[in-house]
Design a protein that fits this description.
The chain is mostly helical and 371 residues long. It is built from 17 helices and five strands. It has two domains: 237 residues, Rossmann fold (3-Layer(aba) Sandwich); 93 residues, Tyrosyl-Transfer RNA Synthetase. It has a three-stranded parallel beta sheet with strand order 1-2-3. It has a two-stranded parallel ribbon with strand order 4-5.
């Protein structure tokens, strides 16, 4: 497929402000794709309906987080003139499509989805306490993707099982209802460029960056907040003295440097080294302190986050305009999803009132039966 024919779709659950794990995992790539312009259409959405599946007792939290995520999208550099930004719940066609897709998937298949199993464990659900909506969110996600006939989905590695399940649904639907044609499109996953970006650990080095674990660096963090978090980051517990050799594995500072550092950063912030390989070599042989490495990382993160903070300050003063951007995006998204839903209904032969041939056949049938 030519890059200019790609339809790109991705999104985030509004569980709070977005952090730098979201940024390196997918958000940075979205902005790059947008600026390269090599696509037919790009959709980025806020998955509030999915967020409600495990926040049903706290809808206000989801409601408030929608604007937080929208602000993060705009501050990261997504341009509503080039990308359609929309809210999942405001495109009801997605719910109908999910309903039809439920017949394409068995309970046992959903139970085997590794991402679903992990998410269930993280939230402490057990047995019959699992909300049906949460359990079936791979189906909802498949509807989100296929409604826009997306060909490319930029996400983190943990979403691979979700894309595999979406493709299973697409293949089964096309096989049953396609009549030799592909009604729905199989999407391809687009993973981050490096292993460090696949799943950025939290500042404590113990797990994936997570709001609930309090180990996040948010895109909207102030320089003061950022400094506190970087200075407290987990490094090498055996690297007690500067002269001792340091270890890179499990060292959160170097994992973050892998994700963010560029050669040009050394000229600006640490001219004693040419690149990250030289810095790593010095650290592992000894003679380089964690404080120097943290200060270098802090400078890099401030450099990356400064324009994001500036854009966020701009949009925070224009909240009605942000909602208007989302409203227009929802209208555009609904029109596209409705067209796909029309194709689905036609293929499933449940477009009763639009099927003139059906109406005429039935009329003829009953007319003849009276004679």
């Amino acid at each position: 497929m030519d890059k200019k024919d790609r339809v790109i779709l991705t999104g985030d659950r509004p569980t709070g402000r977005l952090h730098i794990g979201h940024y390196v995992g997918s958000l940075r790539r979205r902005v790059q794709l947008q600026n390269e312009g090599e696509y037919k259409k790009m959709y980025v959405f806020i998955a509030d309906a999915q967020a409600l599946t495990d926040n049903i007792d706290n809808p206000e939290k989801v409601r408030q987080n929608v604007i937080e995520v929208a602000l993060d999208y705009l501050s990261a550099g997504l341009d509503p003139e080039r990308v359609t930004l929309f809210i999942q719940s405001q495109v009801p066609e997605l719910c109908e499509l999910s309903f039809y897709f439920m017949d394409m998937v068995s309970v046992s298949r959903l139970s085997r989805n590794p991402t679903v199993k992990t998410e269930i464990q993280m939230r402490g659900f057990a047995g019959e306490s699992i909300p049906v909506g949460f359990f079936t969110y791979p189906i909802s996600q498949a509807a989100d993707i296929t409604a826009f006939k997306a060909t490319t989905v930029p996400v983190g590695e943990d979403q691979k099982p979700m894309l595999e399940q979406a493709n299973e649904i697409v293949r089964r639907f096309n096989n049953i209802y396609g009549g030799g044609k592909d009604i729905l499109v199989e999407p391809s996953i687009m993973l981050p460029d490096s292993q460090a970006c696949m799943r950025l650990p939290g500042t404590d080095g113990k797990a994936k960056m997570s709001k609930s674990l309090g180990n996040c660096i948010y895109l909207s963090d102030t320089p003061k907040e950022l400094k506190t978090k970087v200075n407290s980051m987990f490094t090498d517990p055996e690297h007690i003295h500067v002269e001792q050799p340091g270890h890179l594995e499990g060292n959160t500072v170097f994992t973050y440097l892998d994700a963010f550092c560029e050669d040009s950063d050394f000229e600006k912030f640490l001219p004693d080294y040419k690149n990250l390989d030289e810095l790593k070599a010095h650290y592992t042989r000894g003679g380089l302190g964690d404080g120097t490495c943290k200060k270098f990382l802090l400078n890099i993160l401030n450099d990356r986050l400064a324009p994001i903070r500036e854009r966020r300050a701009y949009w925070e003063q224009r909240i009605p305009e942000v909602y208007e951007i989302l409203r227009k995006g929802c209208e555009e998204a609904r029109a596209v999803a409705q067209a796909t839903l029309d194709d689905v209904r036609r293929a499933m032969k449940i477009n009763y009132f639009d099927d003139v041939e059906l109406i005429q056949e039935q009329a003829k049938r009953y007319s003849l039966s009276k004679k």
